[in-house]
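My current task is to audit a protein record that another person submitted. I have pasted the whole thing underneath without changing anything:
***
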Amino acid sequence: MLPLTALPPTPPAETRPAPPTAAELADRLLEAYDWGLPLPAAPRGSGTPAFRWLRAAATSDLQQGLANPFPPGPAHREAEALRALFREPQGRLAGRLAALSLKQPGTALALWRWGKARMREGRFTPDLRRIWEDRLLAEGPALTRGYALRHALCWALADQDEARFASLKARADATADPILAQFQRLFGLLGGPSPVLRLWTLPALDYQDVRLDQLGAARLWVLPAEEGPLPELPPEVAWIIPSLHAGLDDRSANLPSGLMDEARALASRLQAEGRTARYVPTRAAFEDLGLAWFPILIELDGQGYIKAVRMGDAAPARP
């Protein structure tokens, strides 16, 4: 009799991950867009028109228009309404904006990019700007709603419009609490004395604990120094340069090697052009005040009190 042997185990059934849903595909593209990464390619299948619409919204020259990829139906009508909005004269935009559906993430992203371009060109009145912001706040993916909230808050601060801030705060959900707290602190700075910050002089590389009004300028421009030519600034503007690698304790009296290398490189560039500036090796000091998005233009009155703050989306291209 032959000995009994155990049967070989049954191999596990081959499993393949389920294809991503349309919502997951949209989230991946929006995340890549937000981080400035290459956008994923369009998949095959029934979700392709919505994905193509979203990808075109992220990459196309909107002045050249967007092709409508949808078959007849609600999504097609939404895309056509957006295309019509882009062709409307200024006087008819308010009604079109208020009625526009943003069920498709691509519609919301295209509307955001279109409005940002009009803002840069100075083509939005304050009323139209608020209507555009409110439409984006009311519907669409979390990314564009977040962009719109940041934009609206930056402009409420620039306009010193406490009623607008209260309105935005009332409609926001709990996820917006951190950004609302930042702007609450900034509104509290308006009309008050300048805060004290630890700044390092450039090119001398000495640190000083100074109030902003002690820098000898009525306007302060807060912006990291990137590669390329240094920005041209009016003589009445003091330049404060936050570190690109900020992480130091804002009360430290010494710069570690990496930040010292950055500071010395900045000092050499400024010295070569006969310029001066102040260097901040940490962003924590600014963030504690609510100053979180560069560029930032701070204006002081004759007594050194903070007269105005224009930050992020509401900051001018040049001081």
